From TrEMBL:
Species for this entry: Flammeovirga agarivorans
SUPFAM superfamilies attached to this UniProt entry: Six-hairpin glycosidases (SSF48208)
InterPro entries: 6-hairpin_glycosidase_sf, 6hp_glycosidase-like_sf, AFCA-like_C, Alpha-L-fucosidase, GH95_cat, GH95_N_dom
Classification via PANTHER family: ALPHA-L-FUCOSIDASE 2 (PTHR31084:SF0)
Domain Alpha fucosidase A-like C-terminal: start-end pairs: 716-776
UniProt GO MF annotations: alpha-L-fucosidase activity
Gene3D superfamilies for this protein: 1.50.10.10, putative glycoside hydrolase family protein from bacillus halodurans
Name of a matching Pfam family: Glyco_hyd_65N_2
Occurrences of domain Glycosyl hydrolase family 95 catalytic (ranges): 310-714
Name under which the protein is recorded: Glycoside hydrolase family 95 protein
Domain of life per record: Bacteria
Length: 800
């Protein structure tokens, strides 16, 4: 019996691990990520010299320091050209309208160096391009801060190699042996203490020698070693940003620690611990974005850890992390013990070939939660296109915040996966965009309110971008949805009053000014562009649907706050006049006001289905004909695409309650990819051996959008309704999920077998009424705060 329990415990541990039997070669495809929200590191597990790229969220080129004339992309007075553009559009002169828009209404950026490889291609990773050129001068890029290098002087044949990432405890480990010497490593990222911690151990009698040093692509102003701490003071050549990386070296049994030629040599030791933190002079305050005393920040962090043992640092990290991670248990049936014990890359390969492996799918869900916790915490900046993991100085798409779906998708699972605290990073960041966004709205449109467009940096670049793909002022309205969603899930009225509603109102004020009447008296966005697809237009449907969503949320917010009646009436009137979704000649949901969709078009964006997900304008219950048209559009676009595109389709099909189609797309999302076997954005996304999503190249949105879709298949909700197992595929015939959140501030746990509900347990964190639906059954509940109720498959009360 004892053995049986031990075996079960071991299997449970393996179910929440990524495991490999060889070092990683490719950064984005094979290295294992750790992060504490502020900082990130990718670990390859090299035996001789471990090179660990370290990111800190504020290390960005661009901004006010790069160009004296930096103006957040704005063009004062550009609005004077808005009416001429509209006049040309009304006259049907789209070519002329686009040229004038391009000349006068696109934002300011200096183009980077020309390259034979377009930015959209899956190019080889170039960590530091020639002359440190970046693609978007005047906008900038997120950049690697430093590399931490650790040389291990123990040579010989490596055996018993095992590299893993334990997402239950948020720790990466490595074990191997060289001859009779066993080596082990442990790496983790502490949010409470703001340090990355790297342990190296060996059991050689006399110990071995380690060499530790920093390397950086930035300018080094000073490198020093004092009282066991390695200091590296740096400055970005691009914009003058200053930062300091520090590494506290702990090796108590070492005979000698010396600093020579910018390296720390530790001889004859059995245990080495390196604690790394980093801070810059960036401060998220418009318009300077500068002012943090970064050396003081580092001194305070060092002072705090000096009072702790290494094991206390790890214990505090583990408690903090598990407080978030352990809220949700997610198990989709049972895989064979052989699969559970298989290295993750081999397991992905078998899964990609059709293997049934519900345990692997469960691991993928929890890995997504791990990534969100690791890249986004309450006081950090939000997760960017690559979370917090970037090894390049000129990464794809600047590794920025794309607001035409990508940063939003990063946070789709935040509330339902019970990680509201991680969501807070985005919500606070959105609030910080209001001031620069107001200037952009004024300069380009002479409008009230605020905007942000497709590409956004950490220096307040809210302007229209420098191409048709980047003309997307609806970004602010879409981001505002996240503040409303946070309220729906938490029922936090002070948050709604003090933070969410002012942001939402500001976004709505812009649209009250920007919308114009068309020839039918309907309000339309003009000019508008369907994101990254199609040319200039009147009333691109994504704009229309996002504005409907924003206005509807304003109306719902006033049902709670009752403090803005005059504005409410304006919103109600404008919403009643909005051009709404239209059904085209093929039975499809139109992407534009005009019926010009191509049924053979497989474009990655399915923007006009925003109203289905994450919006709520289209639903099976309330708008069945529009839902049918949305289905037709999805069928035309197909089940492939880039990683995030496939993830979005999982959510679409889940909303349509087509379980098998949602699952088909989900399996496509987990299709095995390697760096060398696919290229640009026209090819298919999938999943790399380290379970990062292939955009291509790597983007974290596919991971996070994918797990949002998994949750959507099991639980859908609005303020008054919980729908149980609405899109349960036959492949998930048995399962149990604990701790998902639902709108209305409920926690929901589900058990099912043979594709039928066994029990549901609902905890009300706020007193309220709710309808619970399972297929054609419904029960109305009136729950008090703290009340827990359990129902069976017939929705009969079992206990409360």
């Amino acid at each position: 019996m004892v053995l049986s329990c031990q075996e079960k415990t071991q299997i449970d541990i393996q179910q929440l691990q990524l495991r490999y039997e060889q070092p990683a070669e490719y950064w984005y495809q094979e290295a294992l990520p750790i992060g504490n929200g502020y900082m990130g590191a990718l670990i390859r597990g090299k035996v001789d010299i471990e090179r660990i790229p370290i990111n800190e969220e504020t290390i960005w080129a661009g901004g006010p320091g790069e160009l004296e004339e930096y103006n957040f992309g704005n063009k004062p007075g550009a609005y004077k050209h808005l009416e001429p553009v509209r006049k040309l559009l009304k006259e049907g002169k789209k070519k002329e309208a686009y040229q004038l828009t391009k000349d006068e209404l696109f934002g300011v950026v200096q183009k980077g160096p020309k390259t034979d490889i377009p930015v959209s291609a899956n190019r080889p990773v170039t960590r530091n391009p020639k002359h440190q050129d970046i693609s978007f001068k005047g906008f900038g890029t997120y950049q690697t801060a430093v590399d931490l290098l650790v040389q291990v002087e123990d040579f010989g044949e490596v055996e018993n190699y095992n590299r893993s990432l334990d997402i239950k405890n948020s720790v990466s480990t490595l074990d191997y042996s060289v001859g009779n010497t066993s080596h082990s490593r442990r790496s983790f990222a502490s949010y409470p203490d703001h340090f990355l911690v790297f342990d190296f151990e060996n059991n050689k009698k006399e110990g071995i020698t380690y060499n530790v040093w920093f390397e950086t692509f930035h300018q080094v102003k000073n490198a020093s070693f004092k009282d066991g701490v390695y200091y590296l003071d740096c400055q970005l050549k691009n914009n003058g940003m200053e930062f300091q990386a520090v590494a506290k070296i702990v090796a108590e049994d070492s005979e000698n620690i010396r600093f020579h030629q910018k390296r720390v040599e530790i001889t004859n030791t059995n245990k080495l611990t390196i604690l790394v933190t980093l801070s810059s002079d960036y401060k998220n305050e418009y318009p300077t974005y500068k002012g943090t005393d970064f050396r003081k920040v580092n001194r305070e962090r060092l002072s705090r850890i000096d009072k702790k043992s290494l094991e206390q640092i790890y214990k505090d990290h583990k408690i903090d992390y598990q407080n978030l991670f352990d809220r949700v248990s997610f198990k989709l049936g049972k895989s064979s013990s052989k699969l559970d014990q298989m290295p993750t890359d081999k397991r992905l390969e078998k899964y990609s070939k059709g293997e049934t492996d519900p345990g692997f799918e469960s691991l993928y869900f929890q890995y997504g939660r791990y990534l969100l916790i690791s890249s986004s915490r309450e006081n950090s900046l939000p997760a960017n296109l690559q979370g917090k993991w970037n090894v390049e100085m000129n990464p794809q798409w600047a590794c920025d915040y794309h607001t035409d779906i990508n940063v939003q998708m990063n946070y789709w699972p935040a509330e339902v996966a019970n990680l509201s605290e991680s969501h807070q990073a985005l919500l606070n960041y959105v609030s910080s965009l209001q001031k620069p966004g107001e200037q952009s709205a004024n300069d380009f449109y002479n409008a009230n309110g605020w905007i942000v467009n497709t590409m956004n940096n950490i220096f307040g670049y809210t302007a229209n971008n420098w191409g048709s793909w980047g003309y997307f002022p609806a970004g602010a309205a879409w981001l505002s949805q996240h503040l409303w969603e946070h309220y729906l899930f938490t029922q936090d009225i002070p948050f709604l009053h003090e933070q969410a509603y002012p942001v939402m109102k500001g976004a709505a004020e812009f649209w009250l000014d920007y919308l114009v009447e068309d020839e039918n008296g309907e309000l339309v966005s003009m000019p508008s562009f369907s994101p990254e697809h199609g040319g200039i237009s009147i009333g691109a449907m994504m704009d229309q649907e996002i504005v409907w969503d924003l206005f509807t949320n304003i109306i719902s917010a006033q049902d709670v706050l009752h403090n803005d009646e005059e504005f409410l009436q304006k919103i109600k009137l404008s919403r009643s006049k909005l051009l709404g979704p239209k059904i085209g000649q093929y039975g499809q949901l139109q992407e534009w006001k005009e019926d010009r969709d191509d049924p053979n078009n497989k474009h990655r964006h399915v923007s006009h289905l925003f109203a289905l997900y994450p919006g709520k304008q289209i639903s099976l219950k309330d708008t069945p004909e529009l839902a049918k048209a949305a289905r037709k559009s999805l069928e035309f676009r197909g089940d492939g695409g880039t990683g995030w595109s496939i993830a979005w389709k999982v959510n679409f099909w889940a909303r349509l309650q087509d379980a098998n189609h949602a699952y088909l797309c989900f399996r496509n999302l987990l299709k095995e990819c390697h760096y060398h076997n696919h290229g640009g954005m026209t090819l298919q996304g999938g999943t790399y051996p380290n379970l990062f999503c292939a955009h291509p190249p790597f983007q974290i949105d596919g991971n996070l959008g994918g797990i949002a879709g998994m949750a959507e298949m099991l639980l859908q909700s609005d303020m008054n309704t919980l729908q149980l197992l609405p899109a349960l595929p036959k492949e998930w015939s048995t399962g149990k999920v604990k701790g998902l959140k639902a709108r209305g501030n409920f926690e929901v746990s589900l058990r099912w077998s043979n594709n039928e509900l066994d029990t549901v347990t609902i905890k009300a964190n706020t007193s309220r009424k709710v309808d619970v639906i399972y297929y054609d059954q419904l029960i109305s509940l009136d729950l008090m705060k703290g009340e827990i109720i359990q129902l069976n498959k017939d929705l009969k009360v079992l206990s409360n």
